[in-house]
Amino acid sequence: MDLRAFVEAVACPSVGRRAAGLLLLTAVAAFVLAAASTGAAWASEGFQEAEPSRPASVQPAPLRSIEPGGDRADFAPLRSIIGDARIVALGESTLGAHEPLAFRNRLFEHLVEDLDFTAIAVESAFPESRRLAEYIAGGPGAEQEILADLRTWWHEPLEENLQLVRWMRDYNARPGKKRPVRFYAIDLSYTGPWGSRPTATPIEAALAYLSRVDVESGHKLGVAFEPWIRRLADPLAPWTDQEHDAFTATIDDLVALLERERVAYLAAASAADHEWAHRSAVVARQADRMFRVAPAAPPNGPVPRDAWRMVDARDSAMAENVLWALGQEGPEGRVLVVTHKVHAQAAATAGGPWDAYERMPASMGRHLRASLGERFAVVGMQEEDGPSTVPRPFLLDLREGEAARRRSSFDSQLVIDPSTPARPVKSRP
């Protein structure tokens, strides 16, 4: 795993502002120093526990292609692995690379067309995602402009993401389809040192909803939040304990109001509007919880031993948001979740820079395995170079026999050639 991928997966993937570049460089420097201080192997794939060599008993199942479209019969081995899982997590080997994103698109087409999956959830900030979700559902807008606004879904619009958006929108326009497919983002909205400061975006989204359904309460909370929104505009500003307690209490008031007055608010606006507002407030609370346990030391030295708490808080929140998305899909819903594999794996993260921690963080996948058991399946991705007896790409079933030792991380693994950069969207007249 390269350094940029690690920083994107762990340090600050949800920064949605171009000004965050300096913060990203700070995080890079911090983790480079951490690697040097711990003797970390940056090539470690996913930073999970060291895995044994592939047992000879595991027979590779070749795939026709990683590119979407065409015949899907080669997915038959994967269907038996997925079974009746309601959530399948795909753990990307590298963020912002063509091959993982192309396979994501092909896999989602298969899951929707052949296994009745109903939604995809991606590692991007929830509060900024509504416009894209509504566009995919058939709403108005210009696709490239909407995609450009969602800067937390990578740093620039990518052709691979545009391909997914177009396929989903076209699918939803088909006559006679079983049901629409939906798009969710499951990450928090944050910036600042260690990628741990909340942004004001989810708070502002919830306040905008209140201004329509409860003007008086919306005004009172807007006044209460005004000083904190100003503070959040400076991601480097110090906070006292008293200030942070007051900020947390105001977020709690916002969440409580949306829950307490739900019935009254549903009479003034749609159920979808309330769900988005309430989830935005919850995401603000999740980001604040991560902020509260972030390391006090600036990110210019070795990784603090207690930094696992921040990583743990983020992965726990993403798992909670995945389960919320599944609930939105109803009892027949099935969701593909796409993140870096350090989050998707159903095991504690360890190895590399994680070894500096006093405790290993629990990954999103580990939380989901605890909640769903066998109705959660994980597909990891591994990039390999050099000769192979079976042409890549191919799938490995890691559930049975000697390979069961690896199941704590993945149920299946896709092995591909080394990835290449994703393709930025070319502006069109």
Automatic annotation (TrEMBL):
Signal peptide start-end: none
Q: Could you identify this protein by its name?
A: Erythromycin esterase family protein
Stretches for region Disordered:
46-70, 405-429
- Any Pfam family matching the protein: Erythro_esteras
Q: Which domain of life is it from?
A: Bacteria
